Amino acid sequence: MNKRLTLHLQQNTTLSRVAVILENFSIQQTDIDQLAALCQLGATVLQKNVFPFLRNLSILDKKNPSGLTPLGKVAADIQQSNPALLGDFLHLVIYHLHLFDPDKRFSWAYATVVQQLWLRKEVILSPAEKKSIVGEVIEKAAVNFELPTSEIAFSDSSITGVLNWLHSLSPCVIKSEGKSEYFSRRYFCAAPIFLMAVDAIYKQRQRTYGTKIFLREDIKDAICQMLLLDPSGLDGTLDNAKCTYDYDQGGFFDCGYEGGYGQWIMLTKSPDWSQLI
What we know:
The protein is mainly alpha-helical and 277 residues long. It contains twelve helices and eight strands. The strands form three sheets. Strands 2-5-4 form a three-stranded antiparallel β-sheet, with helices on one face. A hairpin with a 3-residue loop joins strand 7 (253-258) and strand 8. Helix 1 crosses helix 4 (70-81). The radius of gyration is 19 Å and the shape is globular.
């Protein structure tokens, strides 16, 4: 009998808990009971749910149970120097994983939910709307993984796992209205996060750093979807990134227009986070 394809994102790992874990692990304080109390979770939930998820994200070291990976150290640095960016950073880590490791199926599901929300532009997240998104993810998974829908495990609680992370974005994309929550695209994105998305385009499409990428519709949509950005906010975000990391001023990002070809962006190298924050 086939094992069901699990696309579930568990709900116990939240931004505030990750921040506590990063803080503790970066100063080598790893008393599990103490950490569990700070995270307001049982120690077993921490060890059986939260830690494995962070290992899946390559934030925690698989060999050293209380060690941070290089990516985990970057996250800890962000948490220390610019905590407002940590939610966006982790969002993109989760979003991109499946592009480079097809076995990270929860990442594929996460990116698919994000894309479905982005396509809706603005929507109240009613129970019916969430059910509709669940159905869309299952249908897409059936095609993508060539499995019958009955063998795909994805549910309303998986959507809650995705929304956990979307709540942590800044500027926000999930707002409360009375007892309801609604999603709407944002109109700006911080320069380091924008460059992280552009870098993913270079890697995913195997483009050479230092060459221009023209913002055709598919590239523009790919960037806006991963950032949950409205296309009308792209120019302002681009201008801000250019001011912050201007190639002409010794930085590594440039953008402009070329007659007949339209708007372009360029990274001269893959930026590391010590240069972004």
